[in-house]
Amino acid sequence: MTPATHRSHTDDLLSFIAASPSPYHVVASAAQRLEKAGFRELRGTDDWTGATGGCFVIRAGALIAWYVPEGAPAHTPFRIVGTHTDSPNLRIKPSPDTGTAGWRQIGVEIYGGVPLNTWLDRDLGISGRLALRGPDDAPRNRLVQIDEPLLRVPQLAIHLDRSVNEGVALDRQRHLAPIWALGDPQEGALLRRVAAAAEEDPADVLGWDLMLHDIQPPGYLGVDREFVVASRLDNQISVHAGVTALVGAATGVEEPAYVPVLAAFDHEEVGSGSETGAQSPLLERVLSRSVSARGGSGEDWSRALSGAFCVSADMAHAVHPNYAERHDPDHRPLPNGGPTVKVNVNQRYATDSTGIAVFTAACERAGAPWQPFVSNNAMPCGTSIGPLTAARLGVTTVDVGVPGLSMHSARELCGADDPAYLAAILGAIMAGG
User: Residue 281 in contact with residue 391, Cβ under 8 Å?
Assistant: First the structure.
């Protein structure tokens, strides 16, 4: 891979992130790219009989996409890339209008593991989806993205809190409501503003899934622009790489030996326990239906799973220069050294030696480096969708990820070369070999 290839891929990633401030926008961005490559959306109520080629299914903030080569037997095994579309953030409450001391504020909930100090004193916009009144009482959805500095969670001046640099915990309930205007709370004010941005009548809004996002655009950092800094790198790096790999597998391989699959789940940051999460039967049902739609039997389904392989791609930890003691002394990944293979013998990651062998062989074919990662025994280990997918489908799974700093922060950092490395490796796995 050339430096120009790396930079072209990463430039495209930054555009993807800027257009995708919520899980619903991530899905829309991915679907747009898939459709451009000739994939078509299948709905649950459609007849899937005989469906081959590139297909995808959307369920709220989740997307399952796959490519079936013409003439591929129903028992053709799957090569699955699992990712997630959600990121930790602040989400707007159902009754959001609040305020105190002459300020108008918005009530929010904390979604996922948010380092709250990173959300202080940042200019915040609003994104997500509206559920709107539709024909025959069937609701319709509309995406909304307001990339304007509407809100801010102001930090208390150090003159009023001299202990702020001593690590005093933020009062999550009282002091997190962002400000957005002066005056007393006005019921429905936020709804009117968001509906106007979506060019909809506020009276037609029946519900919402809205959240805040940092409006500072993604970009490069460093003396040689060797780093990427952006919101939601965790885990849009992997979604973008998965889409790139799937399109490449569908268009660049004449006779693939596998059915490549991208599974982009929602709600991973809060445990994946939803209809669109990795614990749900969503992926299992879609893949099973794709087999039966091509005339496959239960035996074909079992064969397709028995030969399947899954890569769970999620962000990983680079060694932190100011806290090196928090990392395993012999496993300290660095940016631009390639994706990490994440290992945990207590199955917080699903990686085993077989998975490592498949992944490293793909790295060799892609000409991309990789790095091992193990958590410090004295520190709690994170997890990902890998163990959930492995347990749900019973397939060999390897957990991998681009190493970065400031994970879950409002603005994260990784190497500028690593996203392209990941996409190339995933492409090699989807194509087989």
Answer: no
3-87+231-431 sits in which CATH class? alpha beta
**In terms of DSSP bridges, do strands 340-343 and 309-313 run parallel, antiparallel, or are they unpaired?**
unpaired
What's the topology of domain 90-214? Aminopeptidase i, Domain 2 (2.30.250)
Distance CA 88, CA 406 (A): 12
CA distances from 402 to 59, 75, 99, 340, 371 (A): 26, 32, 41, 6, 10
CA dist 278 and 265 (Å) reads 6
Looking up tokens 């989400």 gives 91
Closest CA to 246 of 414, 47, 63, 49: 63
Contact by Cβ (8 Å): 301, 122: no
Structure-token match 């307001």, residue found: 146
| Phi and psi torsions of 177, nearest 5° | -70, 120
Give the start-to-end residue ranges of the domains of the chain: 3-87+231-431, 90-214
**Cα 313 from Cα 268, distance rounded (Å):** 12
Instruction: Lay out the sheet containing 140-151: strands in order across.
Output: 140-151, 124-132, 205-214, 89-100, 103-111, 179-182
Q: Tens digit of pLDDT for each residue in 157-194?
A: 989 888 777 754 445 445 789 988 888 889 999 999 99
Question: What are 271's two structure tokens?
Answer: 């445990």
For 375-416, what is each residue's pLDDT tens digit? Answer: 999 888 888 999 999 999 999 999 999 999 999 999 999 999
Using DSSP, how many helices (H) and how many strands (E) does the chain show? 9, 20
